[in-house]
User: Fold these one by one.
Assistant:
Number 1:
Amino acid sequence: MMVSKERPPISAEKRAQMLEKSLAVFVERGYVGASTDELAAAASVSKQTLYRAFGDKEGLFEALIRTECDRVYDPFAPLVEEMRDVESAEAAIRRLAEQSARLIMSQRVQQLRRLVIAEATRFPALGELYWERGFVRVSASLAQCLTVLDERRLLRVPQPALSAQQLAGMLLWIPSNRTMFAGIAQPMSAGELADVIDAGVAAFVRAHR
Amino acid sequence: MMVSKERPPISAEKRAQMLEKSLAVFVERGYVGASTDELAAAASVSKQTLYRAFGDKEGLFEALIRTECDRVYDPFAPLVEEMRDVESAEAAIRRLAEQSARLIMSQRVQQLRRLVIAEATRFPALGELYWERGFVRVSASLAQCLTVLDERRLLRVPQPALSAQQLAGMLLWIPSNRTMFAGIAQPMSAGELADVIDAGVAAFVRAHR
């Protein structure tokens, strides 16, 4: 009787562990410099297991982008319902602003962002995936939230897609660029980020009264 | 009589030529992959000339960052005077917005931006230089312009530094991220950028009436 060559499928837990641990290796070595040996070792799995789960390094990186984009997007989806009950425009925009800043300024997202920007010329499909699965979906969620606030007459938002992008940009342009460029030496403090959020909320609400 | 070993100094023109041509090589090869052989060949100079002018590859890249940051910043400086004569808040903000979008969304700036972001972990000094010489100075210029508009009572801008960052973010967040991530496949059209500018000007003016 032949021994079956079928191997047990990779568990979701092991897959998640490989994804979780891969980011630090990519950050440390760069995408090109990270070897599948190191990526497997970081997750305490064999290289074979890594190949079975993701095909190759690009497959692992693509799965990492999907996972991290979902981690940012998923908490936005329920906000649309929240907007139907929120009491004031100020409270609504503050909720959207704080959630955006907290999720998008997280260290993991900023690290992944740097990696994808670095590789988007060589691997345009990875940049496009990040754009479509990250930016486009979060922007659409914010725009839906603003549409609800417009329908409830709490704010006037005739161009919700553009206004959603403005809100994100007002909040994130400086904190995000600071992380990308000067962040290693001068991270933005929680107090500075709170000032950016306060000012952004106030300006956005005034612009849409 | 000994032949003098002194060589003629590198002309400003030749220096500028090396800087001008280096960006395409860095974009093509990545910072790490670009060799001084290729960088010298691209500018039709000897490797010795390149070393004499910039010391090494990092010196050349640093000089490139300085030059490109100045190219963006220099046209902002005269805007403060313009703000003293501009007729309306709308015209003033449109002038600032169009100048910001045109300069910062230029292909050279966006290419350099990607390169610096990719290397800022390994070479933090380059990221900090870009931040200080690019962002900080342009933000300060915009803030000065807004202060003039506040003094002239065309707008109310009690926090000019934060408002300057908001204006830049409203205009640049989406176009810039689109270039960084999806830009290779889906560049933003002139018409789409014009819509972003129109909406940004209108929202900023309403927020600061």
Number 2:
Amino acid sequence: MSDEVLRWAPDADGDPALLTYTFGGAAPVATLRPGQVLSTWTLDCFGGRITSVDQLVSEVADPRYLNPQTGPFWVEGAAPGDTLAVHFLSVEPRYARGVSSTVPFFGALTATPRTAMLHPALPERTWVYELDLQERLVRYAARDTDFTAALPLDPMHGTVGVAPPLGEVRSSLTPGSWGGNMDTPEMRAGATCYLGVNVEGALLSLGDGHARQGEGETCGVAVETAMDTTLVVELVKGAPTAWPRIEDDAHLMTTGSSRPLEDAFRIAHQQMVLWVAELTGMSELDSYQFVTQVALTPVANVVDTDYTVVCKVPKRFLGDLDGTRGAYGGVHARLRSRG
Amino acid sequence: MSDEVLRWAPDADGDPALLTYTFGGAAPVATLRPGQVLSTWTLDCFGGRITSVDQLVSEVADPRYLNPQTGPFWVEGAAPGDTLAVHFLSVEPRYARGVSSTVPFFGALTATPRTAMLHPALPERTWVYELDLQERLVRYAARDTDFTAALPLDPMHGTVGVAPPLGEVRSSLTPGSWGGNMDTPEMRAGATCYLGVNVEGALLSLGDGHARQGEGETCGVAVETAMDTTLVVELVKGAPTAWPRIEDDAHLMTTGSSRPLEDAFRIAHQQMVLWVAELTGMSELDSYQFVTQVALTPVANVVDTDYTVVCKVPKRFLGDLDGTRGAYGGVHARLRSRG
Amino acid sequence: MSDEVLRWAPDADGDPALLTYTFGGAAPVATLRPGQVLSTWTLDCFGGRITSVDQLVSEVADPRYLNPQTGPFWVEGAAPGDTLAVHFLSVEPRYARGVSSTVPFFGALTATPRTAMLHPALPERTWVYELDLQERLVRYAARDTDFTAALPLDPMHGTVGVAPPLGEVRSSLTPGSWGGNMDTPEMRAGATCYLGVNVEGALLSLGDGHARQGEGETCGVAVETAMDTTLVVELVKGAPTAWPRIEDDAHLMTTGSSRPLEDAFRIAHQQMVLWVAELTGMSELDSYQFVTQVALTPVANVVDTDYTVVCKVPKRFLGDLDGTRGAYGGVHARLRSRG
Amino acid sequence: MSDEVLRWAPDADGDPALLTYTFGGAAPVATLRPGQVLSTWTLDCFGGRITSVDQLVSEVADPRYLNPQTGPFWVEGAAPGDTLAVHFLSVEPRYARGVSSTVPFFGALTATPRTAMLHPALPERTWVYELDLQERLVRYAARDTDFTAALPLDPMHGTVGVAPPLGEVRSSLTPGSWGGNMDTPEMRAGATCYLGVNVEGALLSLGDGHARQGEGETCGVAVETAMDTTLVVELVKGAPTAWPRIEDDAHLMTTGSSRPLEDAFRIAHQQMVLWVAELTGMSELDSYQFVTQVALTPVANVVDTDYTVVCKVPKRFLGDLDGTRGAYGGVHARLRSRG
């Protein structure tokens, strides 16, 4: 363990081509030791180029440079077959502004390049949100009427992941077994994300901060914002993780990312059945029955190139998971105590 | 309005062939007037034939007689183009026992007749749950180990619906635009369900009581139980409803039932975008943006012949919806006051 | 066997509400004996109401009265668990005109009520085709330019089916295990369709004649035409058929209808693996391997409420299927000899 | 144009880790000039490691080294926005043996890592096929019975593609907009494949030879064989191609690869509607109608990580496409004349 904090910042003012837009395929920017705290920040998904309602994504944002990631960080000692635990100590909007938009042929209620149709695109429009960091509110204002609403601030990262397996390099717009653009609001401060390591050093990256989002992220764009983030990593050696998992104080969570959406559901719930069986000693069939009666199943996104479903099980139903009886030997509780 | 209560009970001891297993296609059993309270009960989805862990569904339950419905009730004055509001005053397990099971080729994590494969069926097994109606608990006991868990009682109806459009008659195992087997835990006491009327008299039926279920109802069978239910109906004349909606004190909810699951998501969220626009006066595009940031999206079921997704929006974000400014002219608040 | 021909005609000039629009739920119009020839005709899917390019479906056709079926016919002796063999002796356009159209929110390349989006409908338009019954051609003429094309006439029925199981009544717009609106061009003269019987009398109906269609029926509407049809039925007692199958002189064919489309594929190919194993004596695993290398897999439709895939296996690869060694005891060859 | 032939061979006897298993992410092995003929060969998808029915894929084949590709070849002058035309002059099995197998959790009729379930894997088994290159036959022999069948030899490449866009590197097991593992039998000698260029030099690779396969490649493994292949490439400058297209003497073909399978259908058919409109001058709506009546729609694969559908339109229906009026300025006819 190390108490030294690694401070690292992306070069937001430099050539956008030099930022990181993939999981895998990029050289590490720095090295993190297990137990070490990382203090960094992430650009918003548009690289900060949208600042007013008069700007449109298709005019301002280069499609090659969407969703820049901070990283990748080489995690000392990480090897294929390990699990990387990433605990978010703090996730806070860097500025008092969030932006959102409709993007042509992107979103759940429009034709897309993969759900290809003959419709013209829906209208493109930008919304700017005031973030009230004192009151912890996100202020929505309609564009066509004077409707307004004050929504709870709930900062999170849409994207966190490692290098994929099989030598693949995947766009930061895509979620998968390596993590990536899962867009679940569960990736907030206080949560620990478990990612299976596929390559030496793991190559952790993160980005896509949201001041808040609805489940499903219907139009494809949340309240996007640059984010100041502090996290601490830990390694669980020799413990593979097939699909990203999340743990907070109240829940165990599994994720699945695929299409159709029922396959994302299947992955998340199969993983939860196996995980609950492992932690409680129940048989697989008993665990299947148990998960059927206790799971919460929020959709994470139905807009990225693959869709994500989260399965949540309250830890209080699982009996005594204290200390090393907890998931991955109790790493969440240990990292939580650092916060 | 009428204060008279209609009491009606299914003939649980008679010929199971005489019970109701479809939406549409059955003669009404009684007439309900708008404003009238109905006090009734519903058999569990196995018609009460499973009472011990030694019984298997495939041996005890005739596949023609699964999921019997109480009804249909003819609603006086209901005509195509109206909306039927069904408010649940009370939903209480009739006995202190619930049952569940795995059923061959049924469930989310198994091959099924539609997701057809070459695997043999998963093992069939029955679980019996003690329902502690005082402590409001559902007691789970593993079959293969001594693991137990006490889960919150949360009684609900898996199935509520009316006769479908286009002259169709649909099995009570299926959800759709007429309601049916949506299997969402939101269908609990205190909720109002809005169903579009397709035929004269609407032909309301309900059943499939669950002492509780997880979202998604992963193995396809919740904690099944007979249910004592009191409800009150109201008619909203000339207000069509394309897909079932639910309102409780805190949320507006839309549902979609289809396959693949992303189409169920699309239906529910398109309907919510339209509903929020109508109630707030926002433009469709502003509503799309707003719903993107506020929707909760629990999966209801991924096991019936079509899958169901629920979209929930907190009413407190929508401004002043008091009195007749509320959904369907404020019918939920009025019916709620009857409880 | 009977040599007597049953001649029956729908009342095309009467009240359209009196025609048949469902599988199940309609009283039989006549009785057919096994071995008996039926000579009849079917209205086109618009009930004959579109006769010029100036008419639009949404203006002329009542949505309750789309896709009228001829029938249902009570088949003497048919009982649940039997298979009804329907052999098409002749399928010929009744008039020298076919029509097609785009229909708002219907088709594979548009948002639909189930793939719900926020797009306005694609433009609605009607095309009229000249059918040259001598030259066996279908003459296409573009509406916006002078492009024309002469396509081979290939008459077929989009819809053929029996009453569904579980007491269901299904719209004639929908395909399923009972047959219905499968929209495969394989349902042409010379083919035998095998349908599992679900109710006494089977209740056979047919309709939706197409002068020709592409596979997938992309925009949802083929070259629609009234059809003069002669067929002969046979019963295979005690031989259930889970999903519709088709046999012609060259191929065995299975169908699956579901969503997503891969589930329709799975059904058709699982059924073919089982059928080939049964006919050849191969093990299921050997049959799986064999079907992998020989199957042809045309998509039938991706536009109806469920989608249909056909799996075809050339009979010449299956060894000696002569006489009673053939499928269903060689019924196709026997009925074919009637033609 | 160049008459010089580039001869290049993979190092089949070296370290399998040094072969190419991705599209993108590998250094070019040689340079091809437009108009130049390439004479090469490709290993089978198991790298030649399966030679008898006693070998199982899971025991013999390293999952990191499946589906090795020959290439990538740098195509001189190729730049993003161009189209690379790859015309197959000759595709011939290199040996007289093909192999196939079932692979645990891989295939259309089994649970997979993405259609995740709780079933154990189907049995793993290997089949060896004799290829009779004189009689042009592929000889199937059942493992469990003495059933045999002689099937037509129809050699093809399951995999051909270029580097993907957005800096991605994709496994050779996956199909997509860059080509890759489409597994369509249309990729045979005499066909021209059109691939949109995403990076300088295009980086063409190919592999996965099949002596034949059924459409859909149901169990996931065709009659796999090393292949001697001769091809010629051409560049169409400034003509982007969104998804791979194929042309042979009789048909124009478009492909789409996605999940669910209906999205693969949608891509292929939207692309065909646009292509036919461009070549004939028809409006998009007229082309939509026309494609509806003429398209053939074979499924290519339902087994890889994404699924592929092909849309075929007979060229004879499209009017005069001779000379430069043909697709991409008539490049297929010109390359065909080299054969």
